[in-house]
Amino acid sequence: MLLTIPNILTVEEVKQGRQLLDQADWVDGKVTAGHQSAKAKDNMQLPEGSPVSRQLGEMILNALGKNPLFLSAALPSRVFPPLFNRYSGGQSFGTHVDNSIRQVTGTSHRIRTDISATLFFAGPEEYDGGELCVEDTYGVHSVKLPPGHMVLYPATSLHHVKPVTRGARICSFFWIQSMIREDSRRSLLFDMDLGIQRLNHELPDQPIAAKTAVQLTGVYHNLLRQWAEV
């Protein structure tokens, strides 16, 4: 499932983030790449332990925890501390698959990367190229979003970032270990949750709708109980 989630960050949060990111000291992005990815990766990153990375990472995690669409779609168990990258001057990231397991730097904690996330800090008008292209059974999907918007996609997907030929593409990226390991099961639960919310919103005073919503909610939680890893 590939899903765009708008307005993860507010306009003020994006503005604050850009001020910090524009003044930050960037390093070669290969520092977090695996052996195969390093051959395809050409970008800049913030050091993981930098004060800016920690401050903005905390802001993003707080925003995610308050976003109902993210919580419903990802069913997060753990979220990797957000990282930050910058592409300019023709930089790109060739086709690759994200590492299946990531260790949180400086700790013994590891997460399984079920879902990949990219949160945009630069607007589409600020740079040319830089599209995130995600491959699935239905073809290649090109993603380039406004600041504060985020895209989720299965970490098992082949994906790449096209060369940035003008300006700079600035994003946060991170991974989520979901309570539901399989993307197909997460998609089913997400669709069911949206359907239940729609029933409650559009037919709040209809007894049959209320009864159906209760039945579907029971099915939802029984499936979650059966499939979840916590």
Specify the number of helices: 6
N/C terminus separation: 21 Å
Low-confidence parts, pLDDT < 50 over ≥5 residues? none
> What helical percentage do the residues reach?
25-40%
Class inferred from helices and paired strands: alpha+beta
User: What does the largest sheet look like?
Assistant: 9 strands, antiparallel
- What sort of overall outline do the alpha carbons produce when their principal axes are compared? globular
Can you write the helix and strand succession as a string?
Answer: EHEHEEHHEEEEEEEEEEEEHH
Tally of DSSP β-strands? 16
Report the average pLDDT across residues. Answer: 94
Strand fraction equals 25-35%
Q: Any idea what the radius of gyration is?
A: 19 Å
Keywords:
230 residues; single chain; globular; alpha+beta; nine-stranded antiparallel sheet; five-stranded antiparallel sheet
Walkthrough of the structure:
- It is built from six helices and 16 strands.
- By secondary structure, the chain is an alpha+beta fold.
- Strands 1, 2, 4, 5, 6, 10, 11, 14 and 16 form a nine-stranded antiparallel beta sheet that branches. Strands 3-7-15-12-13 form a five-stranded antiparallel beta sheet.
Write the layout of secondary structure elements.
Blueprint (H helix, E strand, L loop, with lengths): L2 E3 L5 H12 L4 E2 L6 H6 E2 L1 E2 L5 H15 L2 H7 L1 E4 L3 E6 L3 E5 L4 E3 L6 E3 L2 E6 L6 E3 L2 E5 L2 E5 L6 E5 L4 E3 L2 E15 L4 H20 L4 H21 L3
Antiparallel strand pairs: 1-14, 2-4, 3-7, 4-6, 5-16, 6-16, 7-15, 8-9, 10-14, 10-16, 11-16, 12-13, 12-15
Helix pairs in contact: 5-6
